[in-house]
């Protein structure tokens, strides 16, 4: 750890009073900002005005500028080629080894933009969903009632017995449909159509009777 | 991936090495740190944001330097110091041939003073004043706010100015300059007096 000397303002070397010391202290605090060009014009003028009158602060600014320039002049050093030789050797060995078949695909995938890499799983999920979904929404095939509902044959009945029974059941259902239609017709004819028909006939008859009475009352 | 990695290494290796060298002032240690940084880069390649890779590298270098100093592995023998001095001499510029010795000595002492600074003062001076990184890059490297970086930078420079050896060199050069001015003045007055007679 290097020993260090304090600045003149801190040690009060100037000795002309507390006010001057505090001014020197304040000016020396601003030296770095001045060297970086961060002071406003008024502040710069005030600092330079004090520097002209104060030998210690002038010396301090000179020293600060010397150190500042010397640091800025320090060069960016070149890394010797041999410094990374172990790493280069390691990578050369790695590139000679055969990489697995998926490594090339992985490297290609890594080169894609990040947005594409993140979107890829989402697109894949949507594609799979679209591929699977139409299979669920296909129009239902006409179902052969007999074929769909053929139960496993009971031990006592053969397949032919069951099919015959289902055929009889279909016939019965068809008959009932026809009966139902006739019934509807019959019911409709008896309780709706016929009364309506009779009412209309009665109305027409009444009109005819009234006309014949009118004609009979004619004096001519 | 290997090509991209090699391009990044080529682009950043001088900066990383330079930072390590100014921090540790020993070529072997600086090379070790540089190797360590780029090995870590390879290990974490897929996780790193490529746009911020410069800041990442400097952050890793900074941590590696701190680890090196803590473990006390930096070599402090005269040969490595001589190597460091010779390296800077080869790559630096000498402005004033007349003050050559003083400037070189001043530069050597300055490097010692920089290396003697505590963290984060040392890193900030190297990153900002030597390597010319922006405040934003330094923020990312050291994990500080911009105002903190500026404050620490000013403190770093003040600490350098408090270095006794540097100040002694400056004072001796100033005294020599003052003495030579006085001699010049007395010679001038003697000549003018002789001319008057």
Estimate the helix proportion of chain B, in percent: over 70%
Note poorly predicted spans of chain B.
Answer: 76-101
Helix content range of the residues of chain A, please?
Answer: over 70%
Total strands of chain A: the figure is: 0
Main sheet characteristics of chain B: none
Largest sheet properties of chain A: none
Uncertain ranges of chain A: 1-16
Regarding quaternary structure, what we see is heterodimer
Compressed to H and E, one letter per element, the order of chain B equals HHHHHHHHH
String of helices and strands of chain A = HHHHHHHHH
DSSP summary: helix tally of chain A = 9
| SS class of chain A | mainly alpha
Number of strands of chain B: 0
Largest interface: A-B, 38 and 55 residues
Structural class of chain B: mainly alpha
Strand content of chain A: under 5%
Account of the 3D structure:
The complex is a heterodimer of chains A (220) and B (197). Chain A is mostly helical. The N and C termini of chain A lie far apart (155 Å). Helices cover 74% and strands 0% of the residues of chain A. Residues 1-16 of chain A have low confidence and may be disordered. In chain A, helix 2 crosses helix 3 and helix 2 packs parallel to helix 4. Chain A has 9 helices and no strands. The relative contact order of chain A is 0.03. Chain A has helices spanning 8-11, 18-36, 41-53, 55-73, 85-96, 101-111, 114-136, 145-148, 159-216. With 197 residues, chain B is mainly alpha-helical. Helix content of chain B is 80%, strand content 0%. Chain B is built from 9 helices and no strands. Chain B has helices spanning 2-24, 27-43, 53-71, 78-91, 100-116, 121-130, 135-142, 146-161, 164-196. The longest helix of chain B is centred in the C-terminal third of the chain and has 33 residues, at 164-196. Chain B is elongated, with a radius of gyration of 22 Å. Chain B starts with a helix and ends with a helix. The interface between A and B is large, with 38 and 55 residues.
């Amino acid at each position: 750890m290097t020993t260090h000397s304090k600045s003149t303002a801190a040690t009060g070397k100037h000795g002309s009073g507390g006010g001057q010391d505090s001014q020197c202290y304040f000016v020396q605090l601003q030296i770095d900002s001045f060297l970086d060009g961060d002071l406003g014009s008024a502040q710069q003028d005030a600092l330079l005005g004090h520097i002209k009158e104060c030998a210690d602060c002038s010396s301090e600014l000179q020293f600060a500028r010397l150190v500042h320039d010397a640091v800025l002049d320090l060069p960016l050093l070149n890394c010797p080629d041999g410094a990374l030789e172990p790493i280069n050797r390691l990578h050369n060995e790695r590139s000679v080894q055969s990489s697995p078949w998926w490594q090339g695909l992985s490297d290609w995938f890594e080169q894609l933009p990040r947005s594409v890499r993140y979107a890829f799983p989402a697109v894949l999920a949507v594609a799979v969903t679209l591929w699977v979904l139409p299979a669920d929404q296909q129009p239902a095939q006409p179902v052969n009632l007999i074929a769909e509902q053929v139960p496993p044959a009971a031990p006592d009945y053969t397949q032919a017995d069951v099919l015959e029974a289902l055929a009889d059941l279909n016939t019965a259902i068809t008959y009932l449909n026809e009966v139902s239609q006739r019934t509807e017709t019959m019911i409709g004819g008896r309780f709706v159509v016929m009364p309506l028909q009779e009412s209309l006939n009665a109305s027409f008859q009444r009109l005819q009777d009234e006309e014949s009475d009118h004609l009979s009352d004619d004096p001519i | 991936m290997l090509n991209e990695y090699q391009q990044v290494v080529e682009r950043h290796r001088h900066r990383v090495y330079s930072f390590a060298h100014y921090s540790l002032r020993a070529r072997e240690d600086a090379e070790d740190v540089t190797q360590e940084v780029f090995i870590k880069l390879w290990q974490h390649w897929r996780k790193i944001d490529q746009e911020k890779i410069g800041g990442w590298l400097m952050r890793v270098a900074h941590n590696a330097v701190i680890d090196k100093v803590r473990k006390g592995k930096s070599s402090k023998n005269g040969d490595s110091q001589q190597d460091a001095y010779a390296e800077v001499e080869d790559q630096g510029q000498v402005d004033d041939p007349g003050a050559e010795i003083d400037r070189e000595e001043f530069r050597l002492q300055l490097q010692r003073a920089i290396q003697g600074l505590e963290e984060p003062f040392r890193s900030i001076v190297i990153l900002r004043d030597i390597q010319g990184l922006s405040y934003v890059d330094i923020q990312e490297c050291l994990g500080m706010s911009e105002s903190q970086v500026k404050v620490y930078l000013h403190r770093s420079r003040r600490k350098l100015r408090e270095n006794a050896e540097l100040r002694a060199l400056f004072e001796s050069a100033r005294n020599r300059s003052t003495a030579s001015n006085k001699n010049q003045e007395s010679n001038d007055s003697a000549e003018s007096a002789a001319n008057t007679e």
